Structures are given as structure tokens and as C-alpha cells.
Amino acid sequence: MTAVADEGTNTFEYFGSSSAGSFTRQIKAAIDARLGVSAATPAQPTPTLSGNGPQDAILDGASYTLPARRVADRLMSTYWLYVDPLYPFLNRKVWERSYRALFEGTPLHTDERIFVTMLNVIFALSTQLLEATHSEYRENSSNAYFINARDLLRLDPWEPGSLELVQCLLLMGQYSQSTNNPHKTWMVVGNAIRIAQGLGLHLPETSANVADADERETLRRVWYGCVLMDRTVCMTHGRPAMVSENIPSAVPMPVWSQPGSGSTSATASNKSSQTYFAFFVKSVELYEIIHQANLKLYSGSDSRSARKEGPQASHREADDEDLGIVMQIDSSLSRWKCSLPDHLKPDTTELPDSATVQRQAVILRIRFLHARILLLRPIMARFCLDHAPYHHVYDSLKTRVTQQCALFCVETAKRMISTLVQYQQNDGTVGLLPAWWYRVYYVYSAATILIAAKLRPDVFPAPDIARSWEQAMSILETHERFGQSAKRCAAALHILSTKILQDTQTCENPRNGAGLAGSGERPATLVDSGTAFSGQVDENTFFGRSDLAGISFDINDFTWLNDMHAWELLNQA
């Protein structure tokens, strides 16, 4: 989802800082070599939004072909079960009325071409969520549905947009996250935002002037869907956000209840419907906090780069400033957590009766943990770097706070992994967890923290984190049936772990090769604990020194930890 072009590829695409891109390309090349992917082999063609079909307004018969009603109903049920509770971009009552009319052959009171396009995108997305299906069949089927949608859409940048078109593009953005083409996600979400702004959805009066409650709330959910997807793509691509900081809050948040749910019934089903959209609203709030962390801690602005490359005193001032930023944003996270309704609190001991609400609570817990990892990760990197042999660290309040942040970061990563293990299903269903491509991404994010902890065995003894590492590797092994992404994730993690072990051994024995910058020594415990950290896996048997000869990154350059291009490593683009 966050592609960085291979070396030699003629592209002008921007994916964050150049140093991060260089690191990602090196790791990607090593993964390809280990997994037998030829760099000279052209990537499989992936559908674009331009399409190749006729440009007239008449529906193409081939693209209009729909699956049998039984298959369509099953895929729609999957969508309502797994996607809509998290991303409620559609007005279900209006949608189901049009859905029935389409299969009954009666007139639709909407743009039929856009509706059928959305239907095919939903089929494509739902097919990706059928985890019991063989990966090749699932990929081929979902891609076929998406090609149908692409050929029907025929997006014309010169024509005015519509609410239905924005909904369609948001769904396409959701589907694109499951593919190996991150550029498609970036462009689709960008188009959705621009069309939404063209319709005035970012203005409070646009929805406020709508009398019908269903329609008014749909407008607001669609706008905040654009904001949520913008923040997500910004986080994963390392690119600037399209929606500025001050614009989102101008539009009132959607209400928590489903229209018509009422407030008098005490049944469990009605209680869940009264808070159906609470998850979505709290997710938007959480991703705004994440966006603040991205802006203030991961920004690629010239001013931030300059201060980090400036004099030592300036660097220390930047470090102090970042600690203050982390404290402020962590306070925002804590306030956000306290504001959650009881049924969504991450540490609640009693799960709700509704499976949908249970899943919302679990996923919100995972998103919260990931947000905290992103927040603490730069401090974790600094903590490990300060232990380098050429760094002289004195005991102070700052060093102790930094160490506590690092401890908290590792503990959060372990909780992330244990949560994924706790709710992992082996029955071919999604269960209470997010979609499989998100699970792989979350595991990778948490596991890189464990690798960083390997650099400080004086604080993080290897046996303490070995169990979490083994759990992470076990999760990836079970996800290999979904395609290449889990294999590539495991390969990337083994490369990082092996490279760190090899470089620290070189540093420990400088006569065997060029040492790290500063040519000092690290504690012997770092090397001694290397094998224990990996459980039953000997890193050097997975990737030998010859496999890593082309990787030149310095373990003291924590681009590999703070890199915002993880999904490029997980996908073969």
C-alpha cells in the first residue's frame, strides 16, 4: 500500500523521505532475492481507474454481468458483517432498496452505472474477506469484480461529481488496501476527497441544510470517511494529508445511533444499534491524534530536517522538544481512551453480547495500541541510539523518561501481538479481528519494536521478548495462506534481525570487518542473546552474510524503525 519504486524504475512518485525510500528498496531487493522474485520480471498488470471500455453512457453488457443472486447475497452479507460496522459509508436502507430493484428488474432511483460499479467493488472487497477460500481463487475472483467496476466507472475529471461517486471511490480505496498497488489507493482516495470538497461536504451548512435525518447523517459519514481514509493513507504512505488540520472539525460528527433505532427499547440489539456508529466516530478522533503525531514526529519538512542535521546543541533541543510533544499527544490518547463508551473501552472485562460490537471493541483496542507504538517509536529509536559506543549518556531526568518511554513502547508492542493471538480464528473466518492485510501490517509494526529492543539487552533481556517474537512469527506463518504479504513480512523481519546481529558481531570483533561508526564496543550480552531472541530460528541460516551483502544501512540509522513504508515490504509491487 505504500510503494517505493524499485531501483532503476523510471518514476517520480514521492513516498516520504529519500533515506526511508533507499532503505525500503534495499530490504525489498533482499526479500525478492530470497523468495525467488526476479527483478527483471515485470509486475503483473493491475487495473487502473481509466478503464479501456466504451466511453458512452450505455452500460456494457459484459461489465454488467452479475453473479447469481445466492452468491451476491452471500457477498453482501459479508460486507454488512465485516466492512460496514467499521466504514459506514453507505445508507443501508437506501442501498438495499436499490439492490432489490436491480435483481428484480425494476427501476432504480439512483445512478445505475455508479450503483453497479459500487456493487462490484463490494463483491471484490467481500471476496478478499473470505479467508477460507484458496488465495489464488480469491485473488482472481476479487480482481475480476474490480475490473468490472473499473470498466463501468470511467471516471471523467471534467464532469461534476456526486455523493454516490464519492462513496464508490471510498469503497475502491478500501479494496485497494488489500492489493499490491498502493498508488491506486493514493489516487482513489485523493479523487474522493476532491469530489467531496467540490460538493461542499467539508462545509457544515451542506449537511445542516438537509432536512431528512438519514440523508444528513450519510453526508457527514461520507465526509468523515474521506478524512479517515486521508489520515490512513497519510500514515502509510508518508505523504502530506490532503485535508488540512482545521477543516474536519467544521462539520458536526455523525450521531452514534442508526436512524430509527429509537431509545426506549432495552433489548441488546437495539442497544447496539443506538451506538452503531460510535466506533466510526471514535476512530476518526483517534486518527486525528495519529495525524498530529505524524505531523510533529515524522514530518519531512525542511525545518525539521535542518534542525536534526544541525549542531549538537540544536539536536539536543529537538530531542527535548520531541519528548514534550510525545507527552502532549500521549495525554490526548489517554483522554480519548477515557472518553470511549463502555462497550468500546479497550480494557473492559465484559465483552458486549453483539459480535459486531465485540469486534468493534477489539479493533479499536488494536488501533489504539498501534497509535501508541507510532507515538513512542521515535523515542525508542533514540533510546537505542544513545546506547551506541560513541554516545556518552549521563543519568538525568531526561534519560530516565526516555527509558520509560522505550519500556512502554516495547510493552505496547507485546500487547499488540498478544491481542492478535488472543482473538485469532482458525476456522476460516475473520472473527473479531481486522482484515488479514491489516493484521500482517500490525504484526510487522510490533515486531520491529522487538528487534529494536534487541539492541538494549541491558534493559530488555532476550528471554522476556522471545515469547512475543515467536508469537509474531507464528501469526505470520498462519497468514501465509493469504498470499505473499505475510512471507515478505517474515522475510523483512528476519533480514533486520540478522543484519543487526551480524553488525553487532562485527562491532564486537572489529578485526573481522569494518566496525560501526565510532568503532566502539557494544556489550557482549547483545551478541550472546541474539539466538535466544529468535526462539528456534537461527537467523544466519535464514539469511546468510552473502544474502545481505547489498544492504548497506547502518543499524544506528533508525530509518528502518521509523520507516513509514511498511506496506511496500509486505507487497510485491
Automatic annotation (TrEMBL):
Entry GO MF terms: DNA-binding transcription factor activity, RNA polymerase II-specific; RNA polymerase II cis-regulatory region sequence-specific DNA binding; zinc ion binding
Signal peptide: none
SMART domains listed in its UniProt record: Fungal_trans
InterPro entries named in the record: Fungal_SecMet_Regulators, XnlR_reg_dom
Keywords recorded for this protein, A-Z: DNA-binding, Nucleus, Transcription, Transcription regulation
Pfam families to which the protein is assigned, alphabetical: Fungal_trans (PF04082)
UniProt GO BP: DNA-templated transcription; positive regulation of transcription from RNA polymerase II promoter by galactose
GO annotation, cellular component aspect: nucleus
All copies of domain Xylanolytic transcriptional activator regulatory, residue ranges: 185-258
Protein name per the record: Xylanolytic transcriptional activator regulatory domain-containing protein
